[in-house]
Amino acid sequence: xxxxxxxxxxxxxxxxxxxxxxxxxxxxxxxxxxxxxxxxxxxxxxxxxxxxxxxxxxxxxxxxxxxxxxxxxxxxxxxxxxxxxxxxxxxxxxxxxxxxxxxxxxxxxxxxxxxxxxxxxxxxxxxxxxxxxxxxxxxxxxxxxxxxxxxxxxxxxxxxxxxxxxxxxxxxxxxxxxxxxxxxxxxxxxxxxxxxxxxxxxxxxxxxxxxxxxxxxxxxxxxxxxxxxxxxxxxxxxxxxxxxxxxxxxxxxxxxxxxxxxxxxxxxxxxxxxxxxxxxxxxxxxxxxxxxxxxxxxxxxxxxxxxxxxxxxxxx
Length: 316
Ligand code: GLU
Ligand code: ZN
Fold this sequence. Notes:
Layout: E1 19-22, H1 32-47, E2 51-56, H2 68-78, E3 88-89, H3 94-106, E4 110-113, H4 117-126, E5 162-165, E6 172-177, E7 181-186, H5 187-190, E8 195-197, H6 205-215, E9 220-224, H7 231-241, E10 247-251, H8 276-289, H9 303-313
Parallel strand pairs: 1-2, 2-3, 9-10
Antiparallel strand pairs: 4-5, 5-8, 6-7
The structure holds glutamic acid and zinc ion.
Glutamic acid binds at residues 23-25, 57, 209, 223, 227.
């Protein structure tokens, strides 16, 4: 297939070498958990002599916090985690997502869905399927037509339908995680036909992340284990869209004292980067969490020296 012309400046192909990225959602400042993902992906890129890109995932506009993107960038720089190339904002890339959606539509693997959450819950209940409270509902295929055709996709302003991918039967995805080893997921039974554009016109994370990683030529995705369960969906989309599959490495999560993932919802406190001394304390905590040992622990170590030692010590 022909890759949609990228609007990004200097899109390099994966053949240019290692290209990694950190892709925070600007729902708040960096906390201990997001710093682990930033540091792990930065170290992996630097160790491999690669590029490290920063992408702000500000698609879900209602959840974005004004000023958070700037704050995240300031925190990263205070920690010495500098990026290569221009920062990419997903909110400015709607055209690229629309093109990918159009492409999937031409391939006849999309269909419109008018189900509300309640309709889906009812359909599942009448089929005797219970969804545990904090789990995503597996879409039962209510709106899926028997014969898939290419449908006219309304413009973004049309607020009625969601667009779902029509998964083939036995859609079983297998991949190797560089840290966790072999992984697999049956998308039919564990996920169901998933949404690529929501009924409010927003493109979903699954679609955007796949399009951006491909157009930015990302070769290595290093991120938190909370995202592991999305990987099979993303690999499947890459295959349908004819993109190259990157390598994956999922890092251990930082849990709070109740064993829950740190996030804005659990009121994770932002890291303290007010000066070099405090930023280094945060970096040391993150490295400790990544299981890194024998890093310089002296009082007078600079962040630059510490990051250099950490890069040497990094083993993915
Ligand atoms: N924006 C996503 C998040 O902050 C991460 C996306 C990714 O690394 O694939 O959870
Ligand atoms: Zn539906």
